[in-house]
Design goal:
8-stranded antiparallel beta barrel, alpha+beta
Length: 268
């Protein structure tokens, strides 16, 4: 009886030992999984913290003007968040020919514009275990576009030399959200694709025509200018309505806008 009890006791000890080892192995496995999961949740250390980018979008798509130069500087403020500042020089394409309505002939054209933007970005995922600013991003932005132009003209079909000018301003403020994807190649070069950027936009504009012209002549010049402007930039219809297509004067409208861009850069 004593011998049998010892054998049973040894068997129980063996089972207890095996159970303890099994539980310890499971605990280690759970701990390893938790550590790996925790590692995945911690953002990776970036290769570099800065990106300087060139934005050819206004040059190639929006205004078909090679002098539209826009540059962007993006700086990581944490491992998965960044701020960027964009600044550029913009020029309206020429909308008016040398002669308009066989009424005036233009002798000089002045036009220029700027664009400014402040962006916040958050990179929620790592692409193929690559750190930000590589990967999908979501964010918000505040941007401004401003344009000015002045065209001096001579009035034709008059007995004396008479002249005048057409002057205009356009300001667009945008507050929106963004969704895009940035690729970092060889840890140095970036391709930034801003795919979706809706915004609430405030449009404000002013336009004046000065010179020895009658009210009917000014109205005809105004209508011709509006037609040319809207044919080239349909979004500016936000400044007008079906009953009021005159451009002279000052007006402000709130509407919706959209932003998209392709940028090429250097990561350093």
């Amino acid at each position: 009886m004593h011998v049998r009890m010892n054998k049973g006791f040894l068997l129980l000890l063996l089972l207890a030992f095996l159970s303890a080892n099994s539980l310890q192995a499971e605990e280690k496995s759970d701990s390893t999984r938790k550590e790996r999961k925790k590692e995945k949740q911690v953002p990776l250390t970036p290769y570099h913290w800065n990106v300087i980018k060139f934005n050819p979008t206004p040059m190639l798509i929006q205004f078909v003007e090679v002098r539209n130069i826009t540059l962007t500087y993006e700086r990581l403020i944490t491992r998965d968040m960044s701020l960027s500042l964009q600044a550029g020089y913009l020029i309206f394409p020429q909308l008016i020919n040398d002669t308009m309505l066989n009424l005036v002939v233009f002798n000089s054209h002045e036009k220029y514009g700027v664009n400014l933007s402040l962006d916040y970005r958050y990179y929620p995922f790592s692409r193929n275990r690559r750190p930000a600013p590589d990967g999908l991003y979501i964010g918000a932005y505040l941007s401004y576009y401003g344009f000015q132009f002045k065209n001096n003209f001579d009035i034709i079909n008059t007995t004396v030399d008479q002249g005048g000018s057409m002057k205009g301003k356009l300001n667009i403020f945008n507050l929106g959200v963004s969704l895009g994807y940035q690729f970092i190649f060889w840890k140095r070069f970036s391709l930034d694709l801003l795919l979706f950027g809706p915004s609430v936009s405030i449009y404000s504009g002013s336009f004046t025509i000065d010179g020895a012209l009658s009210q009917d002549e000014i109205k005809n010049l105004d209508q011709e200018t509006v037609d040319k402007l809207l044919n080239r930039f349909p979004l500016l219809r936000n400044l007008f309505n079906a009953d009021q297509l005159e451009f002279t004067g000052t007006r402000t409208r709130t509407s919706f806008g959209f932003r998209y861009a392709i940028q090429l850069g250097v990561h350093f």
